[in-house]
Write a structure and sequence with these properties.
Layout (H helix, E strand, L loop, with lengths): L1 E9 L9 E9 L5 E8 L10 E2 L2 E2 L7 H5 L4 H13 L3 E5 L2 H14 L7 E5 H9 L7 H7 L11 H19 L3 H7 L4 E5 L2 E4 H21 L11 H13 L14 E4 L1 H4 L3 H13 L3 E2 L8 E4 L13 H12 L4 E4 H7 L4 H4 L28
Parallel strand pairs: 1-6, 6-7, 10-11, 10-12, 12-13
Antiparallel strand pairs: 1-2, 2-3, 4-5, 7-8, 8-9
Helix pairs in contact: 5-6, 9-11
Length: 377
């Protein structure tokens, strides 16, 4: 069996779509003896943007732009790349390889080439799971651990492929396991491209954890997922718009009249229908709802406690308490007290009838026209 290690460099990744300028690879036997090493250069048909952003520094490629631009483009190399990654009796490896596979996918789409099926292994995931790390390390950091003295001051795809091979070789020597045994022991490293879609065991695992968390929160809150504020963009947008536009009565005998009320995020996030009704009732008695705990007069507390007795933290509650301790007094009340002041209860506010909500301010649904200054020419 052969092993192929590959890496890709891109001219840019605008809009999350990599414009490939090099495809490097190293092919070895099962003892990591190098059979071939090559760097396939190609014209990206796009401008180079390598300066980086945020916490990600820019990179320097191993060739100048003219060299790339004089090279054949991706369609000319498509058949070769496909053969390299789909040859029978060959295992495909990469480091943080889902990104590289994504670049191949986007280039196939850009140049109207069929995206072929293949499987590949992410060595970064093997290393992370083996070491029990939460954060994924860089390729060169892992390679240094296993005896590589080179740097990545200049990026070449074939060199990075070689570094990737050295990491796997080091892992095999350190654990006493073969490459195939490592794959089976740390199955989250398995990735694939099938039917035009990318997937991995690690992504499936994360989706499972997310589903379990959502199910857990449904049980803890007693509220179905469809009633969560951010369960859909529609819910989030409607609530946000209603908070801004609801018509607040100016006079009312209620002690809440003229006050700003903020409700714990632990309640708001999981009770869309109830929040719409509460905001409507508050407006009808002259109170304004705010999501900013630092500006409220009343803070409505709500707690969520798991089966182990652990209480979830509310960032709004912490902010309100800080303001209360250092700047001005804020009145803290439980949700039941608020509902009592609104002459309602949890049962009555759970059903949403938009026709009974306090209306929004007049003219707020009209488009905004900016007056243009007229000057003499």
């Amino acid at each position: 069996m052969e092993y192929i290690f590959f890496d890709i460099e891109c001219a840019n990744c605008f809009h999350g779509r990599g414009k490939i300028c090099s495809f490097g690879y190293v092919i070895t036997d099962e003892q990591f003896n190098i059979i071939s090493k090559n760097d396939i250069l190609m014209n990206p048909h796009s401008r180079f943007h390598l300066c980086g952003h945020g916490n990600h520094p820019g990179i320097t490629l191993g060739y100048d732009e003219k060299t790339f631009n004089k090279s054949p483009d991706f369609p000319k190399h498509y058949k070769k790349i496909k053969e390299l990654l789909t040859k029978p009796d060959r295992l495909v490896f990469g480091f943080s390889v889902m990104s590289d596979a994504g670049y191949i996918k986007s280039e196939c789409e850009r140049f109207h080439r069929e995206l072929f099926d293949y499987s590949f292994i992410d060595i970064q995931r093997i290393y992370t799971d083996y070491k029990g790390l939460d954060n994924t390390p860089s390729l060169i950091k892992c390679a240094h651990e296993y005896g590589v003295d080179d740097t990545q001051d200049v990026h070449r795809s074939d060199d990075d492929s070689y570094f990737t091979m050295r990491v796997l070789k080091g892992l095999c020597e350190e654990t006493g396991l073969s490459a195939t045994e490592l794959i089976e022991k740390y199955p989250h490293c398995k990735c694939w491209c099938k039917g035009g879609e990318l997937g991995s065991e690690f992504l499936k695992y994360k989706e499972l954890l997310k589903a379990q968390k959502l199910t857990k929160m449904e049980k803890l809150t007693g509220s179905p997922r469809a009633n969560w504020v951010h369960s859909s963009e529609k819910n989030a947008e409607e609530l946000s718009t209603y908070i801004k536009r609801v018509f607040v009565t100016r006079s009312s005998p209620s002690p809440l009249c003229g006050k700003k009320v903020c409700i714990s995020s632990l309640y708001e996030e999981y009770h869309f229908n109830e929040m719409m009704n509460i905001i409507s009732l508050l407006a009808s008695i002259g109170a304004k709802y705010t999501r900013h705990a630092y500006s409220c007069d009343y803070f409505v507390e709500h707690s969520i406690v798991d089966k182990h007795g652990k209480e979830y933290c509310c960032y709004r509650r912490e902010k309100a308490q800080l303001i209360n301790d250092t700047e001005r007094e804020i009145t803290f009340i439980p949700l039941d007290t608020l509902l009592c002041l609104l002459n309602t209860d949890e049962k009555n506010i759970s059903a949403l009838d938009r026709s009974k909500l306090t209306p929004t301010r007049r003219g707020t649904n009209k488009p905004f026209f900016r007056k243009q200054k007229i000057t003499n020419v």
